[in-house]
Design a protein that fits this description.
The chain is of the alpha/beta class. The protein is built from eleven helices and 26 strands. The longest helix has 22 residues. The radius of gyration is 25 Å and the shape is globular.
């Protein structure tokens, strides 16, 4: 017989089902028949966390003219303008009842494609020095926008690269300031989670049968993880009725400066989605957060509170409409996910409450009524977990010397193509040179404890109330999170990739190796890496 309590999170997902087996039939139920039926659900739990929460935001937009190339097919090197500002959000989480910094967790969500090891380590050390939070509990999670420039040390000699060191120092100082401001703003909060969907994203492993290859683009024939997970944070006084009993909604006294949505005061929201920010591509010359910019703007306009975008694992996913030169599609993609998030917010339960069946009311029909009950405070206040590392198998790749030879050859081919006016050949040679240059950078930034056969994959897993907050390095396929959801149904999992240097590359499903997918070429890791990482994170949960 099924448990009479279930989780409310997945109920927000629209689905299409064959309802023929639910059509009424003229059946007389004997007592023995009723015993065989599933017990009715009487309580729907609302995924909730009670924490100490802090937040601050800073602008980290680079100067116009900085090195901007991220696409191999691009023929420009420097940015020419700004589409939308690039932002960094510092979120600080801590257990209720604690006042120190050792048990705090800092997550920085910022508009960048990712960080080189040199910059990642320096930023973590600077945040630790300013806040006292242990380095292992500081997590840097880029949005992975492909329109902010690949600002790594090997790009400094290139056009616009002279601006990289100064920008990295300025951005570092701003992010450190955001962390200290976020800690100063810490207050008790109730976090509520819910899920829905948006069709903006899609699988991007497309089999081009006419040419006998795979391309990296919209594949309408493959399933995709289109889940939108939303977290709503309500700042509350530690002595308020909401935290003590969870009964009803917040009173007027609970409204704070962050604004409100539907009468509920909101301090901030988090929206997670699994799609590469690649609406803008090689023809774009503007600095841009891509679709997360319009997503945040859409949600913030309705809630009057900050909206933080968290990228979900999306190594094999991107927007259906992408690879454009202008910002219109990026904004449309962001609005599409933003509106989905607002719909999810509108359907969220009252903070701090579960839904419970209250019994029948006799009317024209006998009505089944539901009411609110306080969330179990001990359940919502759990706070445990931390950082770790998972050894993953490396695959054989050419040596740095071989990549240097490739780089020289392709640059010569590009110059020759330019000289004869062959734009397509020049673009292709430029792209191949870029691949070689990235491999040189990747191999120069391996972790100190990497071996010729294994790569130490950084991970973190925190149980925060009813939810899991996790991070990992690299670019895992979406299967990482969809598999974890299957293993832990009803548990919100906010899993951010790319928390670490960019050297790991992609983590493909085992069956996707050796068939000609783009993602295998820049990956340091071999078949089985995704499954091993999934198992390791599941064990920590």
């Amino acid at each position: 017989m099924a448990n009479a309590t279930r989780w409310g999170g997945p109920d927000h997902r629209p689905t299409v089902r064959d309802l023929s087996d639910r059509m009424p039939t003229r059946t007389t139920h004997r007592p023995s028949d009723r015993e065989a039926h599933r017990m009715s659900t009487t309580t729907v739990l609302t995924p909730t966390s009670r924490v100490r929460l802090g937040h601050a935001r800073v602008d980290i937009t680079p100067p116009v003219g900085i090195y901007h190339r991220m696409w191999g097919a691009a023929r420009h090197d420097q940015s020419t303008g700004i589409h939308r500002p690039l932002l960094a959000d510092a979120i600080v989480l801590g257990p209720i009842g604690s006042s120190g910094t050792d048990d705090l967790v800092i997550r920085i969500h910022f508009d960048s494609v990712g960080l080189a090891r040199t910059y990642y380590d320096a930023l973590v050390a600077a945040i630790h020095g300013a806040t006292g939070v242990p380095e292992g509990r500081i997590h840097l999670c880029p949005s992975h926008t492909h329109s902010a420039g690949l600002l790594t040390p090997d790009r400094i000699p290139l056009p616009g690269g002279h601006l990289i060191p100064g920008y990295q120092a300025t951005a570092r100082d701003a992010i450190v300031r955001a962390c200290t401001d976020a800690i100063a703003s810490i207050a008790p909060a109730t976090l509520t989670y819910a899920e829905g969907t948006s069709a903006m994203g899609a699988n991007r492993d497309y089999p081009d049968e006419a040419n006998g290859i795979f391309t990296c683009g919209y594949n309408p024939d493959a399933p995709a993880d289109q889940t939108v997970t939303v977290m709503r944070a309500i700042e509350i006084d530690s002595e308020s009725p909401l935290t003590q009993s969870g009964r009803g909604g917040p009173s007027e006294a609970h409204v704070n400066r962050a604004g409100r949505s539907g009468g509920i005061p909101i301090r901030l929201t988090v929206v997670t989605y699994a799609a590469h920010p690649t609406s803008l591509a090689w023809e774009n010359t503007l600095l841009s957060p891509d679709y997360p910019g319009a997503l945040r703007e859409t949600v913030e306009a309705a809630t009057e509170a900050p909206c933080i975008f968290m990228l979900a694992p999306c190594g094999d996913q991107g927007p259906r409409d992408n690879y454009t030169g202008g910002p219109a599609i990026a904004d449309a993609n962001g609005r599409q996910v933003g509106y989905a998030a607002l719909g999810i917010l509108s359907g969220m339960a009252t903070p701090g409450t579960d839904r419970t069946y209250a019994g029948p009311v006799v009317s024209g029909a006998t009505l089944g009524t539901w009411s609110q009950a306080p969330v179990d405070a001990s359940r919502a206040s759990r706070f445990a977990g931390g950082p770790g590392s998972v050894p993953l198998q490396r695959r054989d790749v050419p040596s740095p010397e071989a990549w240097a030879t490739e780089l020289t050859r392709h640059e010569a081919e590009r110059d020759a193509a330019d000289a004869r006016g062959d734009a397509i050949a020049a673009r292709n040679a430029t792209a191949l040179a870029e691949r070689a240059r990235r491999w040189l950078g990747r191999l120069s930034e391996l972790p100190d404890d990497a071996t010729p056969t294994t790569y130490p994959m950084p991970v973190s897993v925190y149980r925060i109330g009813d939810a899991i907050w996790a991070t990992c390095a690299g670019e895992p396929y979406a299967e990482l999170l969809t598999d974890l959801r299957r293993r832990f149904p009803g548990t919100p999992i906010l899993l951010s990739p790319l928390d670490g240097p960019m050297s790991a590359g992609y983590l493909l499903k085992a069956e996707c190796y050796g068939i000609g997918l783009y993602q295998e070429e820049p990956s340091l890791l071999g078949a089985g890496c995704l499954e091993a990482l999934t198992g390791a994170i599941a064990a920590r949960i």
